Amino acid sequence: MLTDSLPNENATRKFKEFEYFGSKSDFSYYLLPFRFHNINEQREILVNEIGDFLIVPTGTAELIIERKINPIAYPELYGDLIANFFISEQPIPSLIDVLATRYRTKKSFLDYFTSLHIFVISLRCEHTCHYCQVSRVTSDKSRYDMSKEHIDAGIEMMMQSPNPHVTMEFQGGEALLAFDNIIYAVEKAKEAAIMRKKTVSYVICTNLAPLTEEMLIYFKENNILISTSLDGPDFIHNKNRHKPHSNSYQYAVNGIIKCREELGAENVSALLTTTNLSLQYPEEIVDEYVRLGFKNMFLRPISPYGFATRNEGKNKYVTQEFLEFYKKALKKIIQYNLDGHFIREDYASIILKKMLTPFPVGYVDLQSPAGLINSVIVFNYDGEIYATDESRMLAEMKDFTFKLGTLGINTYEEVFYGKKSLELSEAFLNESLPGCSDCAFQSYCGADPVFNYTTQGDIYGHRPTSSFCQRNMEIMRHLIELMDSDKKIEKIFRTWITGKN
Amino acid sequence: MNFHINDHQLCLLIDGRQYNEKVLYKCFYWYSNNYSVDIDIETGPFYKITLQATKESDSLSWNHLIEKIKKDLIDFKLRDIISQETQTIRELIVAKAFAYYEIQETPQTNISDPVGFNPENVLEC
Amino acid sequence: MQLKTKGKPHNIFYPVVGRVTKDHTANAEILLIEGEIPTDAITRFSLVLTTLDIDKAIDKPSVYAIPGFEHLSEGDIVLVNTSGMINTLYRVNSNHNFLLFTERCNSNCLMCSQPPKNRDDTSYFFDTYKQLIPLIPKNCFELGITGGEPTLLGERFFQLLELLASNLPETEIHCLTNGRTFAWPHITNRLGELSYNRLMLGIPIYSDYYQLHDYVVQAKGAFDQTIQGLYNLAKNNIRVELRIVLHKQTIPRLAQLAKFIYKNLPFAEHITFMGLEYQGYTPHNIDKLWIDPVDYSDILSEAINYLSDYGMNVSIYNSQLCTTPKNIWQFARKSISDWKNIYLDECNKCAVLNECGGLFQSNAAKHSAYIKAIMQE
Questions:
Q1: Chain C residues in contact with A94 (beta carbon < 8 A)
Q2: Which CATH number fits domain C98-336: 3.30.2350.10, 3.20.20.70, 3.10.150.10, 3.30.70.660?
Q3: Residue in C with minimal Cα distance to A71
Q4: For residue range A155-167, what is the model confidence (pLDDT) as tens digits?
């Protein structure tokens, strides 16, 4: 009876009942790829191959897999499952091209290849932060500033990226101590960009202490973005960021105010580094960011590199404590939004964008294929090329595993498609990593071979003991639980994604 | 599922016809943070799983642990079923997503115009 | 709104399309005569329409004894049939002009306001519009294409679009189609080749769940075809608008539909949620369709806010402000074509009458039970 419609189906124009339009009378269906995970005692999440999810009562996945769902007993769920590509009434769904197109879209952050080019313009710094991973307090420019030859070679390599838009990020040490180097590099890059028909965004990561009027004018003229550090109220910031005989917090705040005045608030951002001390003050830190008028903050865990891991007493905290800190701070941030004050948490926003939108999100630390090489490359002050910012910090500990070559010596092909890159690419995909391949959060998460190597000794990693895994699994679960529990929170999350209040 | 418990050790005897080797490995992988896990082939279709408590092991009772294992085994078996049943379609999605040439497929269904319009008769240009 | 009139035909052997004028020196094809007949001036016109009852006084093709021309303005374009029937095809003083490409349709929507006819009218309409399009003023802002299903014209659909593109390059063309034909890639590619940036296709989607959509449009496989069509259109950079009629069948999954649209069809340039018109099939199917707009206000507001939060461009058509939650008033448009737009007596007292879209004339017989004048605060 349920045959394909004939050309004369409408010849009589007689209306047919709903049931007529079902394609199956026996209620059989096929599974499409999806993964599931418990959110809490009552709820579980189902996530399909393109990252769309349904939050359903616990046990639903089992019912689906055991073919206990049908459109009569579960009309709404059945429709949800069909419409969201969890099950199909045909062995190959008729809309498979939609799935394929959306899959490609989700992965399209790869299309243009490496965008972010980090230039460690100087390793010198006037701060002695206890968690600092690399810096040196010295005036030895010749040894710790990037040479002009290396800057030239770095720009040349950046211009060879297939990406029509590249970002040139200056890091340190304290980048502004080598302001002459920055001017040289920006001017060179501007010339090269015209020749190579590329657009370049410039970012300077700085503690703002050495900021001068002259610098501000130059930033403004060249649309340079400022990324600074603010760890919270003065008693936390100054303890974290020790600057001999002065007040680092005051420098940062004054600098932020000046930069906003000159460059506009949207061109100044601040990063938070979470230390053992910060863990006790989640609310105070959020309040401080709100007080200073920030519309966003980034709750970053401390990275397990460089001096940070050596200074264990001060900085080694367990993931559990960070997660508690994170949740408390997030709760406070959400409360500000509920009270009508817009402020966004950036890490959650990145994950939420992956969960809630159909668009690609290329965030270096949370993508598959991994961000290293594919999205970021680091040119160190001494001309060595590393896969990520963290890799050069390992190098400071005399581990050169992620060194890809040397500026001025190795060609673009040798660096990006060389033996080292190929070896690393084995661990690029969380789709094929143990513990990740079945994980419901796979499409929201990423692979981080450098993190795995640093913390666990190999680039593949061991998920059950991985703090990367524990942290992300729990943050993702928590975000989903929040959305599921309160529609008002989901609505706030939407504003975080679009930035539209 | 048979089990017996020594002081610091849980031994499980699991029927491979119920939970295949892949399911067992995927499931007990997640216990390798707090336990030293051994998976051995026993006689017949059976596997012997030994969980040896390490110093990281939490103070959960063995009974509680067994309940958790039972639940996890079911979940990993379900995941295994999805993975088996959908492997072809997953490969097809990825292949189509990254195909160099896009194959444009014509619908197999009918346009159902009673007067007889046929899209195939419209010229390409 | 009067759109046709009739008189006695004389010497008309084929349908004539032309601009009307009362000024015998104007640039037009059809002269309207109410008083004396200026015998020497009529030679440059191809046809004469007159209210006079004067059969054989003129040897021109003509229609006489017409009741009146009050509904016609200088430059309006009419179709004069051999029967003496005079249809207004284009009104210069309206922003709601549309071309009905065909009355054929391959769907049969439960709430169709203009039920399809199973006869091949395509050459009739094609011949008419081939004459009409070159006469339309070049400053025409917007022109609708409707049906039936316009794409069923096949080859002629493209010919008419090309004619529109060359004659009216500045005019926004808004074409209502069920989009199913575009599931055939070669047809969509051909439309893409036109690079017709002024063209926007308005395509209905009634549910995220195929069976429900197919039921509403009464055609098996329609959902898949429409979705594939939309993807083919997007690949060809053809602009699309999605149209959702709000009724008892579409309301229960409306929030899911909004999500489906954002996830799968984020390329849609505009999404309109439309109140039900009490016309065509609707009165017949009213039991299957009617839900009071007040009873769907929460779900509508959820769907609209969801899409709008994600930056999608959303509108509500055919709604009255007094039955629409205030938090989505900003999306309500005055959308009903002038010639079928009414207000109720109650509305005269309303403080927001000027901002309100009112009702379809047909909805005088069936509308929300909660229509009530909003008093000034």
A1: 224, 228
A2: 3.20.20.70
A3: C211
A4: 999 999 999 999 9
